[in-house]
């Protein structure tokens, strides 16, 4: 990789983070606009049953998550020898095309298909861009590299998602998704101009990437991520109806609740990247403990407006604090397959997204109340912690190999 000035280095990192910002918008703005999407795409169902229509429209979240699950490992295998910069540019182009299609598709089914197409590139982007950021920062900065790229996602939740939600509420959800497509186009241009060429892993190959799945620890850690973090998504997916139907606030308050959650995410990812580079195991355990505690607080206090906002902040902080540590953990147990390790983390997070949204919608549709999703989230996060403790126990018997250095 060419020698970079400090200004060029941070411009490149900002460009990669901008892609994460776009992904935060496209993934999370649906949570705040679910009622608008339900009214527009399924007016008869919405008129008959608001909770039922909202639960059905929740498939917008679930299908996106499933696309990430399928796309992340598949692209990791196909592009094992691709230079990371070229891969990132191609993925950003995919986002532009399919996000625009999501905004223009006339029916619920076609919007779902376009959302699925965009999602195929999501996990691979975070994996490739995170490794690219780590290479730009230099050795020993894997957690920071991940946190910088995902930091764009947290910034989206802090400022972008609330603003895009307001745009969607005032001008229609389709206008919101056209704005998201414009963010992806800007990120593509920024990466093209600022990010240097970084060679692909010289030992990378489809066979090497697939070899990671021979390690039982990869499956166990992936299960811990998928089950444990689904507790967050069970809550986050239904923030809008909880704000309006449980706390009794107007729709205008939804962006402010999302902003509090986004602020928490921003704080959490910044602390989590540093914590993961210092002590990976401790960072994972602290993250899961924080997630269980914060979701419990949400379930207890979200009925009151005074409790909803701080609880949303803490849930956001805990959910993102743990992400750099989980990705570093998967890379550590998949030596020689860095892109696959990062991709599996994204797939697992989006299995969590799909599971949390679907199960949360199921308990709501069953008539157990909107806050039932929070208590479901507590149980899921606790299960993730137990799987993590089992993984660490196996480490004491067969230590995990050290992570492979990021290629420079």
Automatic annotation (TrEMBL):
One Pfam family from the record: MFS_1
Domain Major facilitator superfamily (MFS) profile: 12-396
Major localization class: membrane
Keywords: Cell membrane, Membrane, Transmembrane, Transmembrane helix
TM ranges: 12-34, 54-80, 87-108, 114-136, 148-169, 175-198, 218-240, 252-276, 283-302, 308-326, 347-368, 374-392
InterPro entries: MFS, MFS_dom, MFS_Efflux_Transporters, MFS_trans_sf
UniProt-listed PROSITE patterns: MFS (PS50850)
Name used for this protein in its record: MFS transporter
């Amino acid at each position: 990789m060419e020698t970079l000035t400090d200004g060029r280095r941070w411009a490149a990192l900002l460009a990669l983070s901008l892609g994460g910002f776009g992904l935060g918008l496209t993934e999370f703005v649906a949570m705040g606009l679910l009622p608008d999407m339900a009214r527009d795409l399924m007016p008869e169902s919405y008129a008959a049953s608001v909770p039922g229509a909202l639960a059905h429209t929740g498939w917008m979240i679930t299908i996106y998550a499933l696309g990430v699950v399928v796309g992340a490992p598949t692209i990791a295998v196909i592009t094992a020898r691709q230079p990371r910069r070229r891969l990132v540019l191609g993925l950003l182009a995919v986002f532009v095309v399919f996000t625009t299609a999501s905004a223009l598709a006339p029916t619920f089914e076609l919007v779902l298909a376009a959302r699925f197409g965009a999602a195929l590139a999501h996990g691979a982007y975070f994996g490739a861009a995170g490794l690219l950021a780590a290479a730009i920062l230099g050795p020993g900065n894997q957690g920071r590299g991940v946190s910088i790229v995902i930091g764009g996602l947290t910034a989206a939740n802090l400022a972008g998602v609330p603003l895009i939600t307001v745009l969607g509420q005032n001008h229609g959800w389709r206008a919101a998704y056209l704005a998201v497509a414009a963010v992806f186009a800007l990120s593509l241009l920024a990466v093209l101009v600022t990010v240097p060429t970084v060679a692909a892993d010289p030992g990378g190959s489809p066979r090497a990437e697939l070899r990671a799945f021979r390690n039982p620890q990869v499956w166990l850690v992936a299960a811990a991520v998928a089950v444990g973090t689904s507790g967050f998504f069970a809550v986050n997916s239904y923030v809008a109806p909880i704000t309006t139907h449980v706390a009794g606030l107007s729709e205008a308050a939804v962006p402010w609740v999302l902003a509090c959650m986004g602020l928490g995410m921003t704080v959490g990812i910044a602390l989590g990247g540093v914590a993961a580079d210092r002590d990976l195991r401790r960072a994972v355990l602290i993250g899961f403990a924080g997630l269980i505690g914060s979701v419990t607080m949400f379930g207890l206090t979200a009925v009151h407006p005074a409790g909803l906002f701080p609880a949303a902040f803490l849930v956001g902080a805990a959910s993102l604090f743990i992400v750099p540590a989980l990705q570093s953990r998967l890379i550590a147990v998949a030596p020689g397959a860095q892109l696959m390790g990062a991709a599996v983390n994204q797939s697992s997070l989006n299995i969590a997204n799909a599971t949390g949204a679907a199960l949360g919608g199921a308990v709501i549709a069953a008539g157990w109340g909107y806050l039932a999703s929070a208590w479901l989230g507590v149980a899921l996060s606790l299960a993730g912690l137990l799987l993590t403790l089992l993984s660490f126990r196996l480490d004491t018997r067969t230590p995990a190999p050290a992570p492979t250095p990021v290629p420079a």
